From TrEMBL:
Listed GO MF terms: acyltransferase activity, transferring groups other than amino-acyl groups
Taxonomic superkingdom: Bacteria
Pfam families, A to Z: Acetyltransf_1 (PF00583)
InterPro entries: Acyl_CoA_acyltransferase, Bact_Acetyltransf, GNAT_dom
This protein's name: Putative acetyltransferase
Organism of derivation: Arthrobacter globiformis (strain ATCC 8010 / DSM 20124 / JCM 1332 / NBRC 12137 / NCIMB 8907 / NRRL B-2979 / 168)
Keyword Acyltransferase in annotation: yes
Location of the N-acetyltransferase domain: 5-164
Keywords, ordered alphabetically: Acyltransferase, Transferase
Keyword Mitochondrion: no
């Protein structure tokens, strides 16, 4: 791995860069799954509000960034189990710019965000690269399937990593 790349805990001052990175990762990841019009409607303002809330909230310490020479190139975040909300850790997001795939940063982000915890996540049904990554990390398909209606009906599937 390139020695200038590292993973660290996200900080409130990362919110603006994270908002822009989030959109860039979405464009790379979902360009073939969602219409150009949908992607064009996604703005920094909404992502910025989300990141500011996450990085000021009670689970701020569960959000990490991948950095290459001072530039954010990826992120991961999770929420812990919570009575009445989540039975297990939820990996709500992990994204890495395509230019940084294959360097081990995705693994570092996953390890930082959830460690070896029992966890679950949703992944686009037509995202074999991500699904293979999760399978390598002990996740299996649960059989649950959903669609994100506000994302042009994008189908997603549930994966979980049992206690081990």
């Amino acid at each position: 791995m390139n020695h200038t790349c590292s993973v660290r805990q996200a900080a409130p001052e990362d919110a603006e860069a994270l908002a822009r990175l989030h959109l860039e990762c979405w464009r790379e990841t979902y360009a073939r799954l969602l219409s150009p019009g949908f992607m064009a409607r996604q703005g920094v303002k909404g992502r910025l509000a989300m990141w500011r809330q996450l990085l000021a909230g009670p689970h701020a310490g569960r959000h990490y960034v991948a950095v290459d020479g001072g530039t954010l190139v990826g992120f991961a975040g999770s929420f812990p189990p919570e009575d009445g909300v989540r039975e297990q850790t939820e990996l709500w997001g992990i994204y890495l710019l395509a230019s940084h795939h294959g360097r081990g940063l995705g693994q570092e982000l996953l390890d930082a965000a959830i460690g070896k915890e029992t966890a679950a996540l949703w992944v686009a049904e037509d995202n074999p690269r991500a699904q293979a990554f999760y399978r390598r990390n002990g996740f299996v398909f649960t059989g649950a399937r959903d669609t994100i209606e506000e994302w042009e009906g994008l189908p997603e599937v549930r994966m979980a990593r049992p206690a081990g």
